[in-house]
Amino acid sequence: MAQYLEVKAIMVKAIRMSRTGGPEVMEYVDVEVGDPGPGEVRIRHVACGLNFIDVYFRSGLYPQPLPGGLGQEAAGVIEAVGAGVQYVKVGDRVSYATRPNGAYSEARVMPAAFLVKLPDSISFDTAAAMTLQGLTVQYLFRRTFPLRGGETILFHAAAGGVGLIASQWARALGVTMIGTVSSDEKAALAKAAGCAHVINYKTENFVERVREITGGKGVPVVYDSIGKDTFIGSLDSLAPLGTMVSFGNASGAVPPFSLNELASRGSLTITRPSLPSYIASRADLDAAAADLFQMVDSKKVTIEINQRYALKDVAQAHIDLESRKTTGSTILIP
Q1: Are residues 77 and 18 part of one domain?
Q2: 126 shares its domain with 198
Q3: What does the pLDDT look like over 202-230, one tens digit per residue?
Q4: In 50-122, where do the E strands start and end?
Q5: Domain count, the chain
Q6: Stated pTM of the model
Q7: Rounded to an integer, what distance in angstroms lies between the CA atom of residue 81 and that of residue 324?
Q8: Which of 151, 226, 254, 276 is most buried, with most CB under 10 Å away?
Q9: How far apart are CA 170 and CA 197, in angstroms?
Q10: Are residues 115 and 14 located together in one domain of the fold?
């Protein structure tokens, strides 16, 4: 049975944009949020996640209808549910990491299909900091290129939110992770998280270092969220028959390239995965979330929230993210 609050509409603060561009296009405004329709819920956010994919939508690299909201990750409490919603009820603690955009808000109405129920052991802040990034590492390591233990891998941006989770997860799996970073401070963070070898790409040639570490063989897989700046180097770091996993564009989109680039390096494979494809069904989402929660509950993975910003200060958060000043996870507090 659908459950509703007596108030049919509420006014909340939210980030909206009517055009794409720099951080200045994000506006902190009042918006009206009504009751959920069939298959929808209204969720009151306690914390919102900040992710590089938000920058892609803000800049226009990824298109979306405008005017519109921004943000794909948040954690909070269900305030109302619409007809046909059975998985969650009013009062449930939940998180999500999915489209449609609009997580940068105090509350919102959204589809209920991809909400994750939070165990009591996971705080709202932790959930907002790890749902997208943690589920990303889960699918990268478990499904895109399944790691069995004993492999040596290359993972770019090892001190970011995804990278620090990956460093710990790799160590737990018995995988030797080579990580790249942009500073000595970030190198120390990645090393402490479990990254076996850390390369400062500002002062070292990461391709040469990977070959040195692997005795000239290269690695069987590269996980690359940087894009344009690291793409060719990532291919050059692979062993024959290796797999290039390109899952982000922090430095810009990968330019067009010839498939001969793959053949000439030893019949490489390339894939461009994204989280929505891996959590498209309830069963897949539940399994992935359970795996992530188990890793966190077991203390094999600790979520590092190294930056907190008020929602109204989101422009500064984006500036710091794009300038590579942030480490670990960042959350926005409505």
Answers
A1: yes
A2: no
A3: 999 999 999 999 999 999 999 999 999 99
A4: 68-69, 73-81, 93-97, 107-111, 116-117
A5: 2
A6: 0.91
A7: 39
A8: 226
A9: 12
A10: yes
